[in-house]
What does this fold into?
Amino acid sequence: MNIQRYELHKLNKDQDEYALVIHLDDHLTEFANELGTIPRSKENLRRTALQLIKGKYLGIKVTVVKVMVGGMLVSSLPLLTNTQTASAQTPTTQSAQNSLIYYHVSQGDTLWMISRTFNTTVDNIKRGNNLKSDTLQPNQRLIIPKAIHTVKTGDYLSVLAKDYMTAVSAIREANNLTSDNVRLGQTLIIPVIISGKPSTDTVQPTPQLAPDMQPTAQNSQYTVVSGDSLSVIAKRFSTTVDAIRNTNNLTSDVIRVGQTLTIPSNNETSAPKIQIIDSVYTVVSGDSLSVIAKKFGTTVDALRTANNLNTDVLQIGQRLVIPTVNTNLTTPKQTAPAQDGSTEPVTVSYIEHTIRSGDNIWNLSNQYGVPYNDLLRHNNMTTQSTLRIGQVIQIPQYNVPVRPVVSAKHGEVLDWWTEARYVFSTGKVATITDFQTGKQFQVKHTMGGNHADSEPLMARDAQIMKEIWGGGYSWTPRAIIVEVDGRKLAAAMHSMPHGDQVIHDNNYNGHFCIHFLNSQRHSDGKIQESMQRQIELAAGRAVR
It folds into this structure.
């Protein structure tokens, strides 16, 4: 078959669908006639078209092939059936519709509500969309970043798509890339793939995986690809290594490329019984927090906390996050009085976790953001206790009520031991605002018991820290506001790198210390007064 030339034509200006137009030599009139009568000829041309798409237009949604001979259309062949899609695209680069990376703002939406809905941060949404303020407009189009990734050695779009369980085309679209080439140090938005626009009533928006990553009850067969392991596959389909091993009668964890595995449905696994997706509700006439709380089986306090409300006054059309009610929760009990002297105590409830292969208390502590000793204490265990597969343990979940603040500029004062370490728990990412200069950067709480040992999230965050401290790192404490999960906490920190680190690509060698009310130094277990004075400043209780 002698192809003269080929080109792409967009089928519809409102949709990202294309036709591959193939021009054959004029003398192939006989072949053109065969196209209407001989299936084998059509299949040969279809196969040629798929090869062209794979080599030249990977990631572009081509739905039809149009065959031209002598300027005349002689045949149209539909493409992208399920089997043809699989053969035309590799698992990690299968095309996602670009329109699915955008969230369209609805009346009453706020950045805080959207961040809670999609399990990201307000700062990530602002950075991903170059927003200068928190103001949103109805129908405004937003990219929802699940992460902001700095490219390092070995990173390719296909690798990142697999690591973050998304699609190459989604990353390319979110970052306005014209090719798959990336450079070291480049910052990329890793977008959530939106499953659809939320309605104006209760909705549970679920981030949609790339088509090849989407685990469904109907698609229980999976073909192993390069780079797979049982643990990778288990994580992808929200199951366990043991469940896959038992379902497929495997005697070892060794698998081979091309091997077909049966993926057990979720109800066959022993995964933790955790619900992480909240719902969204639009306020209507006659609603109040108490009415809504009763309607959804939650509490007024939970609604206030989930929506960062400072008043009980609601507006018709306002959209509220409805915190998920977990049937595994026990009756909350009081654990500590409020530091500001009010009737609202910290409460604790529980979710269940079933022990799986590889679990230990330290890893579970990091996974759930619960202090190591707390996890032992709530399960009547000691450091010498052992875990067994199938054992059910209780994971405490702390509800720390929002405390009053002096002004919008200042932060809540939370005691480290009874409150702050549960709000800014290990593993959480926060936005830090330097109280004096207003400069902001992101950090991650990576370790520490007496206070929050943290690290700059990226190299540019480390650079901003250095600028705040006058061009170099310092042990001198400064007042800061820690913004985490929509709450602003009064705290203090120095910037000097020291000790161990978890993040290794942020141009920062070690960690630094963030202190809250009554937190202590690691060296001697004493409260550092210079830190406490800066916390008071961030709370508005002292003057500089």
